[in-house]
Specification:
Structural class: mainly beta
CATH class: Mainly Beta
Shape: globular
Number of helices: 2
Order of helices and strands: EEEEEHH
Number of domains: 1
CATH superfamily: Jelly Rolls
Number of strands: 5
Length: 112
């Protein structure tokens, strides 16, 4: 699997998102090409199919099917991929983007 260069997670920087605050991409790469789980400056929304273990706060969840996952940068998280065949779609967005939609309180109180 691969990610198209213009959508490569390595291009996700605070400077890359100042005007829109939102970037979407297709997950078509090996698990190690996905955005680093340690990033704390973006919310992440993932619609994917695959096998992985997601640690969020004090909880751990094993996912083995199609799932929708919202990662809150305020909650510590980690991802362990169990399959190289993981695929789907994801987006990253800033708190400013969420604020522009007047949904900041909902995002900040999300457990994930």
């Amino acid at each position: 699997m691969r990610i198209t260069p213009e959508l490569a997670p390595s291009s996700f920087t605070s400077a890359a998102l100042p005007l829109q605050g939102f970037k979407a991409y297709q997950i078509v790469a090996p698990a190690d090409a996905l955005p680093k789980a340690g990033r704390r400056d973006f919310y992440k929304l993932v619609l994917a199919t695959g096998q992985m273990t997601v640690g969020h706060g004090a909880h751990t969840t094993y996912l083995d099917d199609t799932f929708l996952l919202l990662v809150n940068p305020l909650v510590p998280h980690s991802v362990v991929h169990h399959s190289a065949a993981n695929g789907g779609y994801a987006c990253v967005f800033t708190e400013a983007f969420g604020a522009s939609l007047q949904r900041t309180e909902i995002l900040q109180s999300s457990p994930l």
